[in-house]
Amino acid sequence: QEQFIDVSGTQGTILQCVEEEAELAVVSSCSSIEESAQCLTSRDSEKKRCCIYGQKSHDGQMSDLQCEAQDSSQVSTPVLACAREKKSRWEPPPPDCKPKCENIFATRLGLVVSGCDSCEVGGENCECKVTCSDEYERYGGPEQPERLCPKEGEFEGPPVCGWPENVPQCTISGEMRDTLHVTNCPPCQAGVDCSCQVGCNVDKGYVQADGKLNQEVRPQCLLHTHEQGTVKCEDVQGRPDCIESFEGD
Predict the structure, then answer these.
(1) 160 near 139, Cβ under 8 Å?
(2) How far is CA 43 from the centre of its chain?
(3) What's the pLDDT tens digit per position in 89-133?
């Protein structure tokens, strides 16, 4: 069934019922045996099966039980059972089915999941791995991708995945465009060389405030690091303070 897994590797194999010799324990005399279970798995030194003799009432109660060799002249009560010289077994052995761990990651978005559909509860041979997909970044949760299914029967939780932080960009705002002559200035990523050129928009009557001749320049979009406070994140209250802080030395 779906909630179990075959750990023997014989799932789907056609089984045959085969007969073989039973390995009976050899005793000096069947009459020396006191336990019924031992009597039914033994034979005497003359290779005669041990049998249980006694009385059986209508309500199934048995009395006057004794263990003697088959065809013994020492008994007068009926034979109830004898050790079997033959036994049967399945070949190959039936599948060894163990409880299976539920794949709790299958319906989660943003994850890359492999090997999590065939893990035994409490087993060690589990190849389950869970990571964030390429378009996401890990923001929390277990750091290692490997997952085991403990005896409690549930995988350790997934990583916390989210969109990566956008690279800051420089843009020419609408107000600035009224006063500037702008050439080839799409949003430029910080830290990346950009072909943007700007100068005062003389056609609209703007000149450089320092009185110098109007000239176009190529400004650089620089990456600036915020001076974030070092805190213990779990102590921070409120979103603005949280995103302006980091934890560490």
Answers:
(1) yes
(2) 51
(3) 888 877 777 888 888 898 888 999 999 988 888 877 788 999 999
